[in-house]
Amino acid sequence: MIMLAVALLMSMVLCLLFGVPYIDFLRRKTIGQYILDVAPEEHAKKAGTPTTGGVFIVLAIIISSVITLLMDQQMDNSAWIILITFLFMALAGLQDDYLKIKGHENKGLSPRGKLVRQILIALIPTVYAMQTYGTVITLGAHTFDLGILYPLFTVFVVTGASNAYNLTDGLDGLAASTGIPAFAACGFLAFTDGHNAAAIVAATVIGALIGFLKYNKPKAQVFMGDTGSLALGGLLGTLAVIGRCELLLALFGGVFVMETLSVILQVTSFKLTGKRIFKMSPIHHHFELCGHSEIRIVKEFTLVSLILSILAVVLNFML
């Protein structure tokens, strides 16, 4: 437990330290966010806000993870798999952000190009998990053998989590605030099941997100961009796979699931009936257009994430 606290504090401090010079660098280079025309009107004033803040989140997590893992003698194969997957997801997100900045519009990688990269990266923890755990997943004390469906399931978990977290990153502080309870639940479940490396990395994420909120809370000084959101979502999915809590991810990551479902339902409804279910998707924009302030939405979504994360931990010990 002491090393988890060390990991969290080290990552938080590093994120706070890295933030100031990196944001200054982005401002000097005028590397800012481009806003979609279809976004709520209130978002127009966010144009030009520095983006790719995920760079210093990733650096804080990787550096503090490596140091803490070495200190605790937990730098095993699972740790390398987690960090390598995280780094590759971050690079994919950085490429997406770079193309947006270069093109001076909010269009980076094509959806297909992004998905292909995510799937290829998701194969890294998938292959490791199959070699280590076979094709079995767990839910509390229960186990389920997925057989040949296991690699499809695991790739879906990692890729789906990456995209879901990316969709949630739409308001100041939303992705970071809702991510803290989710990573806390994932880390706790991993720790209680003996997956110490996964727990330590989860602790560093919590610390980095707390530090990042210093710069990302309303009115945001920087956005994490796809560099951060794709990487953090992919990391959450990877930690769930390595920490053997894949099924509970749907619960402690419930906010991200809700955001994704709102998009799926919106698109499906419009294609089939020509009508929209929500004023705008993802669903946080729906609440915006209903007159809720960004701060209120972030607080409410964070509370929901906290409740779902607690329920996931309780459910794990009940089953």
Describe this structure in words.
The protein is mostly helical and 319 residues long. The chain is 71% helix and 3% strand. The protein has 12 helices and 2 strands; from the N terminus they run ααααββαααααααα. Strands 1-2 form a two-stranded antiparallel sheet. A hairpin with a 2-residue loop joins β1 and β2. The longest helix has 27 residues. It is globular.
Secondary structure: elements and pairs:
Elements: H1 2-28, H2 54-71, H3 77-103, H4 111-133, E1 136-139, E2 142-145, H5 150-168, H6 174-192, H7 196-216, H8 225-242, H9 249-252, H10 254-273, H11 283-289, H12 294-318
Antiparallel strand pairs: 1-2
Helix pairs in contact: 1-2, 1-7, 2-3, 2-7, 2-8, 3-4, 3-8, 4-5, 4-8, 5-8, 5-10, 6-7, 6-8, 6-12, 7-8
Produce a short descriptive summary.
The protein is mainly α and 319 residues long. Helix content is 71%, strand content 3%. Strand 1 (136-139) and strand 2 (142-145) form a beta hairpin.
Number of DSSP-assigned strands: 2
Low-confidence stretches: none
Whole-number radius of gyration?
A: 19 Å
Q: Going across the biggest sheet, name each strand in turn.
A: 1-2
Which descriptor suits the 3D outline? globular
Helix content: over 70%
Structural class: mainly alpha
Distance between the termini: 24 Å
Strand content: under 5%
Individual helix count: 12
Average pLDDT, rounded to a whole number, is 90
The ordered string of helix (H) and strand (E) elements is: HHHHEEHHHHHHHH
Largest sheet descriptor = 2 strands, antiparallel
